[in-house]
Structures are given as C-alpha cells and as structure tokens.
C-alpha cells in the first residue's frame, strides 16, 4: 500500500526513517502558531503573504522560506496519488496549528483526498515527561502507526472550520470551537484555548507566556536556559522552541519589564508593577506588525479575561 506520511518538523525524521514504517515522507517546517496568517483559499497568495511577514518581522529570508518550507509542502500536490495519508502531529499548539494548515492545504489541492489518518499523542509509557515525537526511538513508531485514527468527513470539516476561524481578525468563532470535543482530534480544543490565552490580558496586558516569565522572575533571577526549561515543563501545551521564546524575551527586554546580564534574566521595577496590575504592558511593548493568526494586535480590542476564562472586547481609548 502506498502511504504518504506528513511529519511536523525534522526532529522526528531520522528515527522515523529507521523505524521500518513504509511510505514516503513530507516535512512540515512551518510555525503557523507564530505571526500572521492570511485568510485565503489561494495557497500561492497565502505563501506570499506569509513569506513577506516572516522576513520583515522574524528575519527569515524569503527565498530560504520558499526553499525549505514551501517547496517541501508542494510535494503534497501528489497526495492524491497515494492510497493513504498519515499525519504525525503532537498535542501542543505549535503542532496542532501546523496540522490544521496541512489539512487546509491538502483540501485546497484536491477535492478527492485518499483516506487521512492521524497519529497524535500527548504521552508515552516508555518516555517520562514526554514533550514530543522527537523523543521517540525507531521501535516506537510501528505500534503507533498501527494505532492511527482514521479521520471522518466531520473531522476534516472541523479542522477546516477551525483553520478558517484561526485566520480571522476576531477570535469569537475560534473560542466557540475551542470548547468543542472530538474523539479523533482530542487535543485541538485545548490547543486553541492556549492560543486565545496569548491575547493580552484584561488585567495588565500580559499574555499567558509573558505572565509566566514575570511570575517566575519575581521569585528570583534565572539563567535564560533554566527559565526556558521551567516553561517547557509547566507550559508544554505551547510546544515553543528556543527561537520563539527568544523573541518573547527580546520583546520584554525592549519593553523594560525584564533585564539581562550575560545569561541571567531578572524582573525590573516596571515588571513588578505590571505583574501587580499597577501598569499595563500594552503601554510599553510595541505591537506594530504583531499578529496572532489573523488577529492584528495593534489597536485590537480583544483581550483574555483570566477571571472568567473568556475572550472579551474592551473599548479602546481614542
């Protein structure tokens, strides 16, 4: 049987190829949970918009993006020639958003997809403190392959609807979807909820990640890699790597809420005031060109209310 496997990132590739699981492989090297995504049904328009944004905001060379990311994903144009497609995506936000994009992209390429299955896990009996499939040994893949879950038409519809909501400038539809449950896509709702918590909070403008950093630094100074290790242990729902966390730290340093001395990070007096709801982080951090999916953060009224655990809209000062 001709299988096409889609892996999220290169970390799993070597072990997967050594596993003996049959089939061809395509790698999704995106980070769709970061930055702007354009609501469009035209993949060419989408990739052009995405490439421009990543180059301007994240310093990722446009040609490198097309070579490493787009050209690899364009191999999916032959997906209809396979007898089955298997997605290998983990439980966290990083993986779940990439999974949504891959399903959107596949359905934009052909109206007659072969059966699509998914392998999605959030733990493994042989791996304590499981964080992702990159921790798996080759012998772990064949049993997971046999346990894959076939996605039904309603699952594909849910994925398409959720991706469309993720790309919209208002988060209310996505919030409704984040409360849905799906036996075949069991991690999707929780991941979307984690995404919404990245909106600035009503209380002080900090999102959940920024709040975590300041809260830990309030207890004492941290070397940056120790702080990241704490984040990966306690906030693994996000699935962010060094690159994304470095961006957060740099923004927080520029805003003046943390400072860095060599490898050591500490909270500033402003950071303490923000964490104590005496100041608002939004007044100090630049939101220019900042996006969460389809939400452009500058002049956005959307906030996360930690008390009621809901998205709310505030009235912006003129």
TrEMBL record:
Residues 4-112 form the DUF1835 domain. InterPro entries: DUF1835. Pfam families: DUF1835. It comes from the Bacteria. This is DUF1835 domain-containing protein. It comes from Chitinophaga defluvii. The lineage of its organism: Bacteria, Pseudomonadati, Bacteroidota, Chitinophagia, Chitinophagales.
């Amino acid at each position: 049987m001709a299988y096409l496997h889609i892996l999220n990132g290169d970390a799993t590739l070597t072990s997967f190829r050594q596993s003996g699981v049959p089939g061809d492989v395509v790698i999704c090297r995106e980070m769709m949970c970061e930055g702007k995504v354009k609501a469009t049904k035209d993949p060419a328009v989408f990739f052009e918009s995405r490439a421009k944004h990543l180059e301007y905001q994240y310093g990722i060379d446009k040609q490198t993006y097309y070579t490493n990311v787009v050209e690899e994903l364009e191999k999916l144009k032959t997906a209809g020639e396979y007898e089955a497609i298997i997605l290998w995506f983990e439980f966290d936000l990083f993986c779940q958003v990439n999974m949504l994009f891959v399903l959107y992209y596949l359905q934009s390429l052909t109206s007659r997809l072969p059966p699509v299955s998914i392998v999605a896990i959030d733990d493994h009996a042989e791996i304590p403190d499981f964080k992702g499939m990159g921790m798996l040994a080759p012998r772990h893949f064949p049993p997971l392959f046999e346990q894959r879950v076939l996605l039904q038409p309603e699952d594909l519809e849910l994925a398409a609807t959720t991706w469309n909501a993720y790309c919209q400038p208002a988060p209310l539809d996505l919030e409704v979807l984040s409360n849905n449950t799906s036996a075949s896509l069991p991690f999707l709702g929780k991941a979307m909820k984690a995404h919404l918590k990245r909106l600035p909070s009503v209380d002080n403008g900090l999102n959940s990640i920024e709040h975590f950093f300041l809260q830990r630094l309030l207890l004492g100074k941290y070397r940056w890699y120790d702080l990241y290790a704490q984040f990966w242990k306690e906030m693994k729902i996000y699935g962010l790597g060094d690159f994304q966390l470095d961006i957060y730290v740099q923004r927080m340093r520029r805003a003046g809420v943390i400072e860095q001395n060599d490898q050591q990070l500490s909270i500033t007096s402003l950071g303490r005031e923000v964490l104590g709801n005496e100041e608002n982080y939004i007044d100090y951090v630049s939101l220019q060109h900042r996006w969460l999916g389809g939400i452009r953060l500058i002049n956005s009224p959307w906030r996360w209310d930690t008390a009621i655990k809901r998205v709310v809209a505030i009235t912006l000062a003129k």
